[in-house]
Specification:
alpha/beta, Zincin-like, 4-stranded mixed sheet, 7 helices
């Protein structure tokens, strides 16, 4: 049985159909304190996981800092790409679009911008830490994962969630080192964590901070 707490769905319980209702309630009662702790954590970091409307005035994170969005109505039929300039996100949108279409276009432009930055920034950081670790990935891919920041396949392909670009560089580096260390040790064994610690001594603190940014996984849904 799995219990999940998210900003949008609340407390979600998934269990086999064969599991009796009374048994499910018993397990929920045992996890009550954990559920409350998760809810308090989400409430204290509500800005990270808040559902976005993609309108002017909203704030979006990039490398741990918040930048306000400015949507500019254009007479032309084309949408201008997202730009980060003077501490703000600027996106030009065709003024013939409906409100729903405008929000969709803004969202698409922002996602495209984040993916572009990820494709630039992440390979640079991977190269930096690969030299320290002595292992290079077969390939780097930027993906839109729903529930994970990165993954490393057995054939050496490392995939990163573009949403990691919202987190500070220190957390981005932790995720990169984490996946690179899987090139040496696939399971999360003691030797795996020892290797991570040799590169990032304070990885446990960064790992805890990463949990806060996990709320951004649902912000663009």
């Amino acid at each position: 049985m799995g219990i999940y707490v998210s900003p949008k769905a609340g407390v979600v319980v998934r269990s086999p159909r064969s599991l009796e209702a009374e048994r499910i309630k018993e397990l929920i009662r045992k996890r009550a304190q954990w559920i409350i702790t998760k809810q308090e954590f989400i409430n204290s970091h509500s800005q990270l996981g808040s559902e976005k409307e993609f309108v002017s005035g909203e704030s979006f994170f990039y490398l741990g800092r918040q930048y306000r969005l400015k949507v500019i109505q254009l007479a032309s039929k084309e949408t201008e790409r997202c730009k980060l300039k003077s501490g703000r996100f600027f996106i030009g949108i065709n003024d013939d679009l409906s409100s729903a279409e405008t929000r969709g276009a803004v969202k698409e432009a922002l996602i495209g911008w984040y993916i572009g930055r990820a494709k630039e920034k992440i390979p640079e950081r991977v190269e930096l830490y690969a030299r320290q670790i002595g292992k290079w990935p077969e390939r780097i891919e930027i993906k839109d994962h729903k529930s994970q920041w990165g993954s490393c396949s057995r054939n050496g392909i490392i995939r990163f969630n573009w949403k990691i670009m919202m987190a500070p560089v220190s957390i981005l580096d932790y995720v990169i080192v984490h996946e690179l260390c899987h090139l040496i040790h696939q399971p999360h064994s003691a030797r795996f964590w020892q290797k991570v610690q040799t590169i990032i001594p304070d990885y446990t603190m960064r790992r805890k901070r990463l949990k806060a940014y996990s709320l951004t996984l649902s912000a663009f849904d």
